[in-house]
Amino acid sequence: MSSCAVPTMQTTDAAAMRRGACPSLAAPMPTGDGLLVRLRPLDGSLTLSQFSDVAKAARQFGNGILEITARGNVQVRGLTASTVPGLAEAIGEAAIVVPDGVAIETPPLAGIDPEEITDPRGLAAALRKEIAARRAVLRLAPKLSIIVDGGGRFHLGDTLADLRLQAFRRGDEICWSLSLAGTASTAKPVGVVKSEAVIPVVIRILEALTAIGPTARGRDLDVCAVQAFCSSSAESVGIALSLMPTPSVVGIHDLGSAGIVLGLGLAFAQIDAISLMAFLRQAAELGAREIRLAPGHGFFVLGLEGEAAAITQRLALAQGLRIASDDPRNHIATCAGSTGCASAWMDTKAMARLWVETVPDLFDGSLTVHLSGCLKGCARPKASGLTLVGAPSGYALVVNGAAKDGANAYTDENGMKSALERLADLVRKNKDAGESARSCLTRLGAARVSAAFEQG
């Protein structure tokens, strides 16, 4: 470990400005199209019948639009104060378990992925139970998240968390690398915790967060202080864990002895209830038995064999789902936009379709285009190769930055299609054979890209 400052725990002035609670059945969130409810089913697992029941309820009590978030949660839109109780009753009748309290996340194929080091769901369940038992004394930020990652092909290394527990083998023993605030590559390492010590250590950290205040997150903890008060249970030694890049969810994945799983994605994070219900009915007829929600606005279909998986994949495409890693829609991040959020100045879904049609050469998988309805950048807080931000007077383009960063170029609504056509022409004329879109844009530079976009 590197040298540390005097162990302290401190808040920042930004804490008071952080967004509040996540929308839930108990606390729906007002949006531009009514109330929104977010559901986080236990272990991200649903039967096809349960998923269909959610879609049916979304149509009956909401506006019929469902979303899967970047973290793999289901959202139902267009609810009202009078219809939320009906949705809650439908969820209960479908026997869908939706844990409340701190979000404790495990990989989407936990217990199935043959490459995982250990099934993390048992530890996650024990943590939920222990935290629930201390609910009266723990005052935690509504958006606090804990990742318990047993590894595997579809690990959660790219997902942000306040507390991260990553399994690894040390001889015949399974231990956990504990880190704070970030992805697997950016989080601050605390140390190594043996399995039997994980729960006491995590509870102690949550107590420290409670002492800071109800908005405290993992980033507010001083690593040295955490190491100090966990010294009796955690070894303060750095562990360099090498995680292979997570493959795209979409596609047919052969897991060997675990069989085949079909990965699908929602187009621009949304699907209408009728299309989803139709697909689930067809998939069930072909032998599918379970759904696992997945990060990246997707889900896995379990239980299919051989040709049935290929047929189901084609049926999914017919319903507008993303089915392949080369689908350009895989590389566009969109928020709800003006059709679903009162803060947005752009119809992000319509804009996404325009980008796919007009600038296809950009979507080779080398970069992500982020379409943000406003400066908050909810869909992708981090930097993107290109970010388009809605504004009252038109659209701002950010090159190699996030929505909140300064804009490089502007255009109004009347000039948007022409701006994209010029951008497409710039890439088409300058992209060398075998060169990626990201490399091409980097070589051209932000000034030249901005000039092409803004030229009138």
Written description of the protein model:
The protein is α+β, with helices and mostly antiparallel strands and 456 residues long. The protein is built from 11 helices and 21 strands. It has helices at 48-61, 84-93, 121-133, 198-212, 223-229, 273-285, 306-318, 348-358, 416-430, 437-444, 446-454, and strands at residues 29-31, 34-39, 45-46, 65-68, 74-79, 103-105, 145-149, 161-170, 173-182, 188-194, 234-235, 251-254, 260-265, 270-272, 290-294, 298-302, 332-334, 369-372, 384-391, 394-401, 409-411. The relative contact order is 0.10.
Low-confidence stretches: 1-19
Rg estimate, integer Å: 23 Å
Question: Which percent band covers the strand fraction?
Answer: 15-25%
Shape: globular
Number of strands: 21
Structural class: alpha+beta
Number of continuous helical runs = 11
Largest sheet descriptor = 6 strands, mixed
pLDDT averaged over residues: 91
Offer a quick outline of the entry:
The protein has 11 helices and 21 strands. The chain has 456 residues and is an alpha+beta fold.
Descriptors for this entry?
456 residues; alpha+beta; five-stranded antiparallel beta sheet; 21 strands; disordered N terminus
Structural topology:
Blueprint: E1 29-31, E2 34-39, E3 45-46, H1 48-61, E4 65-68, E5 74-79, H2 84-93, E6 103-105, H3 121-133, E7 145-149, E8 161-170, E9 173-182, E10 188-194, H4 198-212, H5 223-229, E11 234-235, E12 251-254, E13 260-265, E14 270-272, H6 273-285, E15 290-294, E16 298-302, H7 306-318, E17 332-334, H8 348-358, E18 369-372, E19 384-391, E20 394-401, E21 409-411, H9 416-430, H10 437-444, H11 446-454
Parallel strand pairs: 6-7, 7-8, 17-18, 18-19
Antiparallel strand pairs: 1-2, 2-5, 3-15, 4-5, 4-14, 8-9, 9-10, 10-11, 12-13, 13-16, 15-16, 19-20, 20-21
